[in-house]
Amino acid sequence: MKISCLQTEPKETIEQALVEAIDLASIAIKDDSKFLFLPEYCGGIVSNGKLYTPPSDTERNHLFLKEFKNFCKKNSIWVLIGSIAIKLDNEKIVNRSFIVNPNGKIVSKYDKIHMFDIAINGEEHYESSTIAFGNKAVIANTDLGFIGHSICYDIRFPTLYRKLAQAGAEILVIPAAFTKTTGSAHWHILNRSRAIENVCYVISPCAVGEIPGGGESYGHSLIINPWGKIIEDAQDHRGIISTTIDTNLVSNFRKQLPSLLHDKNFILNTT
What we know:
Layout: E1 2-7, H1 14-30, E2 35-37, E3 47-48, E4 51-52, E5 56-57, H2 63-75, E6 78-87, E7 93-100, E8 106-111, E9 117-120, E10 123-126, E11 139-141, E12 146-148, H3 158-166, E13 171-173, H4 180-198, E14 201-204, E15 208-210, E16 216-218, E17 222-224, E18 230-233, E19 239-244, H5 248-256
Parallel strand pairs: 1-2, 2-6, 5-6, 12-13, 13-14
Antiparallel strand pairs: 1-19, 3-4, 6-7, 7-8, 9-10, 11-12, 14-17, 15-16, 17-18
């Protein structure tokens, strides 16, 4: 199946973000892509000093989700909505990812588990001050294969991906709005590591450019094969990367290198 990562620019409002995403999505489907992957906070993001205050709405009323469900149905495609800010009944917000099928139905949803709370060389971000933690790992059964969900900062916690892969995930998705500071140092290494460790495809759409209110997203959306080879890299500008995914490659590599079956329990001694 032909897939595309849409490397969008961060936008301040849901309406602006929707225009940005639909524009690139329309270009991608003209090139015959059947599954589109959008970045984290593709429905809008705002930085307010050390805090993230993304525009939010309830799942029922969220304009970005509504319009992409319609877009999927109209064009008979799959879409990963990397994440949008969803307001819960208790007024808390979650950073939630969705997979929507060609009938416009939600197949899966995932709330980001690990919050981006860091302080590096004077740059501070405290995502958990405004966003609630998720607590469930999710695998979606799609026409492309079994997809294991994650979002951005989750990438630094390999146990999540190990459990997803051992539970049947063939593709790991890591939509992100990685900062330029951490991205330039770690992004490629982390993504290749998750692919190699788990013998999985990794598809990582990442936002690019300045974030309204301050900060900058790194870009370099990636598609990586189960051997850890980078197939496509979107570099540092708005745009689209595409390739064809065949999950038979996953099973072939896993037969040759069955490391997912070789985990052992052990005792840790400290002296």
